[in-house]
Design goal:
Low-confidence stretches: none
Order of helices and strands: EEEHE
Mean pLDDT: 85
Structural class: mainly beta
Number of strands: 4
Distance between the termini: 31 Å
Radius of gyration: 16 Å
Number of helices: 1
Largest sheet: 2 strands, antiparallel
């Protein structure tokens, strides 16, 4: 089944680099090995109201 996708819409992304005392805030996953997911900074999609 083919899904209709509006290719003209924009998706806004954001990433946040939080630094405190020269340390960068990062996330890892508790249930997946770090070798598979790596280290991530806070990020995601944002929507207009």
């Amino acid at each position: 089944m083919e899904k209709n996708v509006d290719m003209s819409s924009e998706i806004h992304k954001v990433a946040c680099y939080v630094v405190h005392d020269e340390h960068l805030l990062v996330f890892t996953h508790d249930d997946v090995p770090i070798t598979m997911t790596g280290v991530q900074v806070p990020a995601g999609s944002i929507q207009d109201r």
